[in-house]
Amino acid sequence: MKISVANHVVLVLALTMMLIVNGEKQGRQEIGVGAILDMNSSLGKSIRISMLMAIEDSHGDTNNSTIIVPHFWDSKNDNIDAASAAIDLLKNTQVTAIVGPQQSSQAQFVLDIAQRSKVPIISPVTNPDISPIRNPYFIRIAQASSTQAQPIAAVVKSFDWKKVVFVYEDTDFGREPIPYLSDAMVNIGTEVMFRTLLSPSSSDDEILLQLYKLKTMQTRVFVVHMLPDLASRFFKKADEAGMMAQGYAWIITDVLTCFLHHVEPLALHSMQGVLGVKPYIPQTNQLTNFERRWKRRFHKEYPDTDHRVELDMFGIWTYDSIIGLATALKRVDTELSTTFKRPRNASTDLDAIGTSEMGPKFLSMIRDMRHRGVSGDFQVVNGQLQIPAYHIVNVIGNKGEKQIGFWSSRNGISNRIINNGSTDYTTNKDNLGAIIWPGDTSEFPKGVLGIPTGGDIFLRVGVPANGGFVEFIEAEIDPNTQEVKASGFVIDVFKAVIDALPYTVHYNLTPYDAPDYNDLLHQIVLGNFDMVVADVTIKWNRSRTVDFTLAYSESGVSMLVPAKVDDGKNIWIFMRPLETKLWITIGALFMYTGVVVWVIEHRVNKEFRGPPHQQIGLVFWFSFSTLFFAQKEKMVCNLSRFVVMVWLFVVLVLTSSYTASFASMLTVQKLQPTVTNIYELIARGENVGYQDGSYVRDMLKSMGFPSSKLKNYSSFQEYADALSNGSKNNGVAAIVDDVPYLKMLMAKNCNKYLMVGPTYKSAGFGFAFPKESWLVDDFSRGILKVIEGQMSAISNKWFGDAAHCPDQNADVQTFDKLTVASFKGLFWISGLSSTYALVVSVFKFLYEKKEILISQESFYRKMTSIIQSFDEEKDRKPSETGTIHPLPSPAISVDQI
């Protein structure tokens, strides 16, 4: 009986309340507010609950004559659906404002539509490119992602970390703050060494491979910007890779810090020691009570939620913004209008929407609003939410975080919120509370380490798959076991260096079929390999994209040519000291000198007269007899004596040089190169070989070799065959390559080839790593240790011992022939002297026979008379001592000079 009475009383009270509420509503005006949210996301659910609670709380004010009616649309995480929802809300529902959407790409569509309709958009998007200043109908009820760049930079600066790596998801959300973070790092003098993008769809193995790559970086400081789903998998794999250990520092951005309650428990356990930043919201009794109510409402609306539910900053700001919206509507109560002005003849759906009469009237009130809300002092200025400071937190325990300090634009890092007007900016880490770093240590990481801590190193090593010089490196995959088998000089050096490192390095060799080594090195830049092990020459242009270790091989580029058999028994060996051009030049000068002497002496010296055939023989005899200073003919003219004197000096120099060169040639090693100079190949038009894909081709072309004379080869056997064939048989006269290749070819063909010519500088072979990799220094030290110890044994294994080829000497002193250039000055002196004497003698003779020249005879008769006169003997009266007395003449004869 009592129960029935109680139920009756409750029913009466409920009906009474309904009548009262209905009576109140009858005098109120309904105002539609749209909401475009992703209803399946945690953020969408959080904003919806906060929005409903704010609307209900605003209706509780009996002085409020307006009722906000929400109209929710599910964007389904799609830009087109979001735009369609906006059109429907504006055209059919004629809402006064729209809350959302959540994503920047969707907001761009919706904002353009709302701008035309003059309807405010209240959105939590963080993209700094969507600015309330450029879009007056856009009110951001969150912080732009660029704002967090300053507090993160302040944390980095406080610990004096000079190098950081950014890790972010490959989405619009992930890329938004990166340029601003980069600028902030530059401003504090910190270098961003690397940026790693991870797709939300990346597999765990792909994440792990990227982490191993990050592990090879010199820095141990990482800034992570991603959403909880990807972050959960990322940090679990980071822990698996040994990167959540002592010496590492991780900083997460505001959204992830705010949504730590959405991170998987196992991942949260892996994140212990991580630092994070998020906007500061003071913990007040009002906020505590609201959070309790919010959780009850959330579980009521979504009873099947399987994760830990926590009120986030977006839900708090949404609640305060709707309260502010309701307050603004109350202020314009008498001017409220829900109608849109529409054109009579609308050609499109957008034109048919029209423009809101209400939007512009209360826009200024919500673009600049301030009230005391659950978030504290809720303030929007020029459409942008203002926050006083940022929390700096440390991820500790199952609850997720512990507050360790604050950051504000006015005071920098501090251990409390400063409200006394102080403007002293500091980034002192001592202002932060106690921090537990990864590895459960209180010692803060140094940031840059030379030796890894917390686990071994795993390297993805790229090796060439198509190398023809298998003695240097050969890699292939076993078709049965799929195991990579690698061998060669380079592999032996690599393994020795790995053993010399002070820590364990695990590696996985991956053959890569590259057209050249530049493409192989580019795989490091693309992130496919952590290092490249190959016979790669260290070059300046390559060092711009990768870092090289110290060289582990001999440096330089040289030329290899076939060795000639000792030609000491060659019947023409006496010709070798002088080049052909020099022999021809000497012969021509001999003839010219003999002719000049004959012309001068013929008329006055009986020994230079006689039958023609005797005179021709005399010219040859006299010239060549001077080689041995055995000429018996006496000179009677001073001009001829002058010519002979100069010529005898030339002969002395030539014979002395020939004797010295010939002696040197006979005493040089028995093995002689077929070519002694690389430019001799150019002059002779010989073919030259080089390694396929090598930079040597460009070097040879710069020296003047035409492309048609350059032939590429890809194995030592091809080198040997080409040298054996020679240029005339479609082979080559020489091979130009790095010294280690040439020495290997010499070792395989004992006493068959010689290395000649100058050695052009190069840096040798080195291992390649990503730019700024700390492993470069450690591997370089390992190479030095191997060079001082095991390198001799490794070299002898692959290049052979020089003692096994006793006749071979890599430092053969090649014989250089004497050339015309060596005696050019001497030949000029001799030629000018002889020409001078010849000209003077001819002019003297013509002067004597001037009567013939000025006669009236024909030119033919004149020439005949001149020749006859030249062939006539001129009378001379020699003294008893053999001197020639001058003929009487009024003028001084040439013979008296």
UniProtKB/TrEMBL annotation:
<dbReference type="Pfam" id="PF00060">
    <property type="entry name" value="Lig_chan"/>
</dbReference>
<comment type="function">
    <text>Glutamate-gated receptor that probably acts as a non-selective cation channel. May be involved in light-signal transduction and calcium homeostasis via the regulation of calcium influx into cells.</text>
</comment>
<keyword id="KW-0472">Membrane</keyword>
<feature type="transmembrane region" description="Helical">
    <location>
        <begin position="825"/>
        <end position="847"/>
    </location>
</feature>
<feature type="disulfide bond">
    <location>
        <begin position="750"/>
        <end position="805"/>
    </location>
</feature>
<keyword id="KW-0406">Ion transport</keyword>
<dbReference type="Pfam" id="PF01094">
    <property type="entry name" value="ANF_receptor"/>
</dbReference>
<comment type="similarity">
    <text>Belongs to the glutamate-gated ion channel (TC 1.A.10.1) family.</text>
</comment>
<dbReference type="InterPro" id="IPR001320">
    <property type="entry name" value="Iontro_rcpt_C"/>
</dbReference>
<dbReference type="InterPro" id="IPR015683">
    <property type="entry name" value="Ionotropic_Glu_rcpt"/>
</dbReference>
<keyword id="KW-0407">Ion channel</keyword>
<keyword id="KW-0325">Glycoprotein</keyword>
<feature type="transmembrane region" description="Helical">
    <location>
        <begin position="582"/>
        <end position="600"/>
    </location>
</feature>
<feature type="signal peptide">
    <location>
        <begin position="1"/>
        <end position="23"/>
    </location>
</feature>
<dbReference type="GO" id="GO:0016020">
    <property type="term" value="C:membrane"/>
</dbReference>
<keyword id="KW-0675">Receptor</keyword>
<feature type="domain" description="Ionotropic glutamate receptor C-terminal">
    <location>
        <begin position="458"/>
        <end position="801"/>
    </location>
</feature>
<keyword id="KW-1015">Disulfide bond</keyword>
<dbReference type="InterPro" id="IPR028082">
    <property type="entry name" value="Peripla_BP_I"/>
</dbReference>
<keyword id="KW-0813">Transport</keyword>
<feature type="region of interest" description="Disordered">
    <location>
        <begin position="871"/>
        <end position="897"/>
    </location>
</feature>
<dbReference type="InterPro" id="IPR017103">
    <property type="entry name" value="Iontropic_Glu_rcpt_pln"/>
</dbReference>
<keyword id="KW-1133">Transmembrane helix</keyword>
<comment type="subunit">
    <text>May form heteromers.</text>
</comment>
<dbReference type="Pfam" id="PF10613">
    <property type="entry name" value="Lig_chan-Glu_bd"/>
</dbReference>
<dbReference type="InterPro" id="IPR044440">
    <property type="entry name" value="GABAb_receptor_plant_PBP1"/>
</dbReference>
<protein>
    <recommendedName>
        <fullName>Glutamate receptor</fullName>
    </recommendedName>
</protein>
<keyword id="KW-1071">Ligand-gated ion channel</keyword>
<dbReference type="InterPro" id="IPR019594">
    <property type="entry name" value="Glu/Gly-bd"/>
</dbReference>
<comment type="function">
    <text>Glutamate-gated receptor that probably acts as non-selective cation channel.</text>
</comment>
<dbReference type="InterPro" id="IPR001828">
    <property type="entry name" value="ANF_lig-bd_rcpt"/>
</dbReference>
<dbReference type="GO" id="GO:0015276">
    <property type="term" value="F:ligand-gated monoatomic ion channel activity"/>
</dbReference>
<keyword id="KW-0732">Signal</keyword>
<feature type="transmembrane region" description="Helical">
    <location>
        <begin position="642"/>
        <end position="666"/>
    </location>
</feature>
<keyword id="KW-0812">Transmembrane</keyword>
